[in-house]
């Protein structure tokens, strides 16, 4: 089974071809930080952003600077060694590259957006000196480090621990914390600000969506192979974990919105977090807890492939090696 102890190296016959297809799809979505044009962002930073918007962007890049590093460490230390399928480990290897690419993107954001060296140092050490970000990091370590001492998944309870780690990574960190961060970016984009940040975020959004899909596929297969693994007690633990994640992210929202921003209220962000949480619960076949609608009309853009004037800037809505018909009304 997928979570059996061991290190299977046999790619043929391939037991889980879905992971190999995900790996190939990820290769098609290759991008580099050098493709992102920040020139108009510098104009916005110097002459267009209000003081509350500047505070928001400083807090946001400080979170970005540490968030994907936490995810990358979890991949190496906790996930790779326990998913016992070589085709799945191919995807995880690709994902680790993408996490490193995201860290490079956020490093570039910090160097571009925060010219003051002391402020930049503070942002790099956000989990130590910014309480709202520290709280999110502590939540992540609490749920993800619980299996760090596990070398093999010998028992059903250990496999449950592993799945809780993966659910935390997919539903809470990449699936909630980062989706909330994307909302702030797309809010600024809706005002015509920081197009370079939005372009890079489009790429990151696609990567993160694929990471969530992969984790959910692992969870689906593990549940199919061992149906009793995901019992009522575990479902309740997932609800508790997701509610804790909402509390952490709402605390961050109170911080990042503390100076006030027209069209982006704390109440609406709380509703958005509940909306996203329900999406994650439903994907796990757990009944939605909040039953709310997405309050942000500007977030509809995240499900539309970006159309841009090729002669003005590099189009981010392309795929390497595209074949067949191309449709611009499909979600990504």
How many beta-strand runs?
A: 0
Name the CATH superfamily classification.
Ribonucleotide Reductase, subunit A
Low-confidence stretches: 303-332
Rg calculated over all Cα atoms: 20 Å
Distance between the termini: 30 Å
Strand percent estimate: under 5%
Mean pLDDT: 87
User: Number of helical runs?
Assistant: 11
Q: Structural class per helix/strand content?
A: mainly alpha
Number of domains: 1
Largest sheet: none
Percentage of residues in helical conformation? 55-70%
Task: Give a written overview of the molecule.
The chain is mainly alpha-helical. It has one domain: Ribonucleotide Reductase, subunit A (Orthogonal Bundle), CATH 1.10.620.20. It contains 11 helices and no strands. Residues 303-332 have low confidence and may be disordered.
Keywords:
332 residues, mainly alpha, Ribonucleotide Reductase, subunit A, disordered C terminus
What is shown here, in short?
With 332 residues, this protein is mainly α.
Secondary structure topology:
Blueprint: H1 17-28, H2 39-47, H3 51-79, H4 86-113, H5 117-124, H6 126-129, H7 131-144, H8 156-190, H9 195-225, H10 232-256, H11 266-283
Helix pairs in contact: 1-4, 1-9, 3-4, 3-5, 3-7, 3-8, 4-9, 7-8, 7-10, 8-9, 8-10, 8-11, 10-11
């Amino acid at each position: 089974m997928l979570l059996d102890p061991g290190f299977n190296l046999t790619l043929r016959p391939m037991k889980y071809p879905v992971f190999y297809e995900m790996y190939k799809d990820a290769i098609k979505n290759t991008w580099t930080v050098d493709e992102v044009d920040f020139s108009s962002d510098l104009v916005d930073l110097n002459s267009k952003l209000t003081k509350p918007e500047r505070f928001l962007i400083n807090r946001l890049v400080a979170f970005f600077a540490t968030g994907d590093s936490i995810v990358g460490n979890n991949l190496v230390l906790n996930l790779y060694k326990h998913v016992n399928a070589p085709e799945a480990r191919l995807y995880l290897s690709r994902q680790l590259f993408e996490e490193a690419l995201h860290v490079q993107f956020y490093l570039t954001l910090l160097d571009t957006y925060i010219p003051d060296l002391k402020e930049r140092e503070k942002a790099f050490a956000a989990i130590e000196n910014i309480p709202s970000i520290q709280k999110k990091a502590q939540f992540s370590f609490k749920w993800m480090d619980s299996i760090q001492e596990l070398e093999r998944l010998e028992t059903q309870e250990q496999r449950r621990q592993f799945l809780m780690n993966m659910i935390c990574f997919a539903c809470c960190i990449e699936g909630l914390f980062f989706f909330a961060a994307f909302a702030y970016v797309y809010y600024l984009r809706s005002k015509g600000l920081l197009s370079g940040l939005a372009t890079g975020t489009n790429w990151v959004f696609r990567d993160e969506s694929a990471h969530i899909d992969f984790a959910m596929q692992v969870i689906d297969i593990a549940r199919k192979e061992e149906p009793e693994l995901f019992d009522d007690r575990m479902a309740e633990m997932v609800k508790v974990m997701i509610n804790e994640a909402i509390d952490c992210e709402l605390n961050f929202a109170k911080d990042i919105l503390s100076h006030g921003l027209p069209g982006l209220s704390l109440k609406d962000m709380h509703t958005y977090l509940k909306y996203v949480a329900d999406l994650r619960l439903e994907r796990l076949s757990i009944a939605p807890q909040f039953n709310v609608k997405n309050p942000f009309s500007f977030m509809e853009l995240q499900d539309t492939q970006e159309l841009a004037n090729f002669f003005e800037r590099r189009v981010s809505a392309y795929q390497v090696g595209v074949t067949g018909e191309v449709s611009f009304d499909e979600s990504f």
